[in-house]
C-alpha cells in the first residue's frame, strides 16, 4: 500500500471524527475548534489529490479568517448553555429522521450512479500549474461572482463586529475621549524618598 493511500485514509478518518465532534460537542467553543481541525484535514486531502491551491485557500480563508472570527463571536456572545440544552431531547426525533433520510438519499445516489464506469482522467502534464489556470479563470470569466462573494463576506464581518459591540450592563469599556485628554502632570507625581529633612 502506498504512503499516499495510508495518509488519505488517516486524514479521512480524522476528518470524519472531528466533523462528528463538531455536531456532538456541547460547548460551542469546542465545536469551533473541532471545525478548525476538520478544515485542516480537508485541506490535507485537497493537497494529496493535487489541488494545492484549494487546500491552501481552505487554510488561509476558512481557518485563518472565517473560523477565527466565528470563534471570537462565539466566545464574546453571552450564550446560555443550559437554555440551549433544555430542548435537545424534543428535537432529537426530527434530527434523527433528517439524518436517516440523508443517509438513504446518499445510498440511492451511490447505488444508482455509474461510479465504476467513469473514464480515467487525462494525465496531468509535469509543468501544469493549476493555481495559475484557476486564477486566470476566476478573474476573467467568474469575476462578478467573485466580487459578490467578497461583498457578502464583508457584510458578514461587519455584522459579526456589530454583534460583539453591543452595550451590555456591567461590562468594562474604554473611554477614549478621557484617555486622550489626560495630561502628563495628571499621571506623574514626584515623591521625595529621602525624607523632608534632607
From TrEMBL:
<keyword id="KW-0812">Transmembrane</keyword>
<protein>
    <recommendedName>
        <fullName>NADH-quinone oxidoreductase subunit J</fullName>
        <ecNumber>7.1.1.-</ecNumber>
    </recommendedName>
</protein>
<keyword id="KW-1133">Transmembrane helix</keyword>
<keyword id="KW-1003">Cell membrane</keyword>
<comment type="function">
    <text>NDH-1 shuttles electrons from NADH, via FMN and iron-sulfur (Fe-S) centers, to quinones in the respiratory chain. Couples the redox reaction to proton translocation (for every two electrons transferred, four hydrogen ions are translocated across the cytoplasmic membrane), and thus conserves the redox energy in a proton gradient.</text>
</comment>
<comment type="similarity">
    <text>Belongs to the complex I subunit 6 family.</text>
</comment>
<keyword id="KW-0830">Ubiquinone</keyword>
<feature type="transmembrane region" description="Helical">
    <location>
        <begin position="30"/>
        <end position="49"/>
    </location>
</feature>
<dbReference type="Pfam" id="PF00499">
    <property type="entry name" value="Oxidored_q3"/>
</dbReference>
<feature type="transmembrane region" description="Helical">
    <location>
        <begin position="142"/>
        <end position="165"/>
    </location>
</feature>
<dbReference type="GO" id="GO:0008137">
    <property type="term" value="F:NADH dehydrogenase (ubiquinone) activity"/>
</dbReference>
<keyword id="KW-0520">NAD</keyword>
<keyword id="KW-0874">Quinone</keyword>
<keyword id="KW-0472">Membrane</keyword>
<dbReference type="InterPro" id="IPR042106">
    <property type="entry name" value="Nuo/plastoQ_OxRdtase_6_NuoJ"/>
</dbReference>
<dbReference type="GO" id="GO:0048038">
    <property type="term" value="F:quinone binding"/>
</dbReference>
<feature type="transmembrane region" description="Helical">
    <location>
        <begin position="6"/>
        <end position="23"/>
    </location>
</feature>
<dbReference type="InterPro" id="IPR001457">
    <property type="entry name" value="NADH_UbQ/plastoQ_OxRdtase_su6"/>
</dbReference>
<feature type="transmembrane region" description="Helical">
    <location>
        <begin position="55"/>
        <end position="77"/>
    </location>
</feature>
<dbReference type="GO" id="GO:0005886">
    <property type="term" value="C:plasma membrane"/>
</dbReference>
<feature type="transmembrane region" description="Helical">
    <location>
        <begin position="89"/>
        <end position="111"/>
    </location>
</feature>
Amino acid at each position: 500500500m502506498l504512503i499516499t493511500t495510508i495518509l488519505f485514509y488517516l486524514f479521512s478518518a480524522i476528518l470524519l471524527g472531528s466533523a462528528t465532534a463538531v455536531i456532538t460537542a456541547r460547548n460551542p467553543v469546542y465545536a469551533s475548534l473541532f471545525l478548525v481541525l476538520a478544515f485542516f484535514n480537508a485541506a490535507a486531502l485537497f493537497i494529496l489529490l493535487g489541488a494545492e491551491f484549494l487546500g491552501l485557500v481552505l487554510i488561509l480563508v476558512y481557518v485563518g479568517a472565517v473560523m477565527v472570527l466565528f470563534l471570537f463571536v462565539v466566545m464574546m456572545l453571552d450564550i446560555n448553555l443550559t437554555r440551549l440544552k433544555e430542548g435537545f431531547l424534543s428535537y432529537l426525533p426530527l434530527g434523527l429522521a433528517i439524518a436517516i433520510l440523508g443517509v438513504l438519499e446518499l445510498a440511492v445516489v451511490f447505488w444508482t450512479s455509474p461510479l465504476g464506469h467513469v473514464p480515467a482522467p487525462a494525465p496531468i502534464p509535469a509543468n501544469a500549474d493549476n493555481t495559475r489556470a484557476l486564477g486566470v479563470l476566476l478573474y476573467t470569466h467568474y469575476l462578478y461572482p467573485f466580487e459578490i462573494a467578497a461583498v457578502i463576506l464583508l457584510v458578514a464581518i461587519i455584522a459579526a463586529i456589530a454583534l460583539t459591540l453591543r452595550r451590555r450592563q456591567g461590562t468594562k469599556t474604554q473611554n477614549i475621549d478621557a484617555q486622550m485628554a489626560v495630561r502628563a502632570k495628571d499621571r506623574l507625581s514626584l515623591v521625595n524618598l529621602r525624607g523632608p529633612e534632607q
